[in-house]
Amino acid sequence: MRYFDSNYQRLVYIEQKADPKYWDKLWDVKNFKKIVSSIRKISFVYSNTTKYLSKGAKILEGGCGKGQYVYALDNWGYDTYGIDYAKNTIEHINKHFPELQVICGDVRKLPYKKDFFDGYWSFGVIEHFYNGYDDILKEMKRVIKSNGFLFITFPHMSLLRKIKSKLGGYPLFDTQMGDDNFYQFALDYKRVVKDLEMYGFSLKKKKYLDGVKGLKDEILIGKKYLQKLYDARSFVLKVFKHSLGICLAPVTSHSILLVMELKDK
User: Fold this and answer.
1) Which residues sit opposite 117 in a β-bridge?
2) Which site among 43, 141, 195, 237 is 20 to 30 Å from 224 CA-CA?
3) pTM to 2 decimals?
């Protein structure tokens, strides 16, 4: 269930609490090794990383999950590290990919030295913390070098979601609901940028992502057909979904990528 938080102009997803047990269960899959090694150079991760960072650069993925991006970045020639608080998942990674520098830990208390990394990737992490992401941003600033880069994605308030909220399409959020079943926020990206700027980061690029998902999650008419397209595995339908997603993204994107450079240390 989604609620609109008018104080912060964001959506609040009340589903299942996104704690380490939840992620361990979600990521406990039979084809673990195949999924981890599935990322290819066509990924937006490759194009954005290589644009801003040279091969050999030290990169952290904070909240690395199953570790597929740690694996990919490592294979693309970067000195890559990963950290996540889902203990069982990290043990799976260490078992199947012992060469990867992946540990169990908390992105709010990173066990790395100051100015240790040239880059930091954060895929859908900050939105899962009910009490806010300030501690995560502090640690990002601490471990990233001056003139280093932060690549961060999160669900956001797309134009479609903003219109829907203005029209009363979501019930209003009441703080008395608490965080017992809190899953995530869909954040106002301008607020996130402003918060990051307070820590010395400057925006270099933004890119809207997941246009098809953002549309299917918000409409009723045609939802089942969009879901079938979203789940499609055939090459032709994947290409169509990708192309459609690009066209829809400025209006319906589910998430957004921000590339931020750390200037002020």
Assistant:
1) 144
2) 43
3) 0.94
